[in-house]
Amino acid sequence: MHLSSSVLRFLVAESEPPEAREDRRASVGRSSGETYRETLRSLAPGAECHRVKPADAGAALPPGESLAGYDGVFLTGSPLHLYTDTPETRRTVAFMRAVFASGTPSFGSCAGLQVATVAAGGTVRANRRGFEAAFARRITPTGEGAGHPLLAGRPAAYDAPSIHTDAVETLPDGAVLLASNRVTAVQAAEIRFDGGVFWGVQYHPELALDEVAGALRRQANGLIEAELAGSRAEVEAYADQVDALHRAPGRRDLAWRLGLDDQVIDASKRLTELRNFIDALDGTRDIVRR
Question: In whole angstroms, how far apart are CA 31 and each of 14, 26, 214, 237?
Answer without folding.
Answer: 8, 9, 12, 24
